[in-house]
Amino acid sequence: MERVVFAVGSLLAALGVALGAFGAHSLKTRIAPEMLAVFETGVRYQMIHALALLALAWAISRWPGRRLTTSAWMLLAGTLIFSGSLELLAVTGVRWLGAITPLGGVLLIAGWTLAAWRLMRREAAEKGSQNDPHRTD
After folding, report:
1. pTM of the shown model
2. Where are the alpha helices (DSSP H) in 23-96?
3. Residue 50 included in any domain
4. pLDDT computed for residue 49 by the predictor
């Protein structure tokens, strides 16, 4: 699963670079400065979360478990909704897209929180097993 998450993060990063170049070279003279700022915010969050997916792929390989995989899919969905809605809003001017942006933000927060919770629980479980007098290793 870590390979899939890493590949998805890599593709999301590649798309972020392409969209960033598109914004810098093609949109700069075609949309209002405030809409360009909205577009840039979407691309920035996309790149941050693409890199986060790469790191999460490493974490999944290091500490396998369903919750980290779930975190990765939440981050991907959140990025697509959050960044995608901002990028499309800036390019199309369709205002209702701004109404779904917070849903993406909630998914991003939930993904990060689930990852932290999962890793903290694993650490607590590992510490508990180290102090277990019945441990056989």
Report:
1. 0.84
2. 33-62, 66-92
3. yes
4. 97
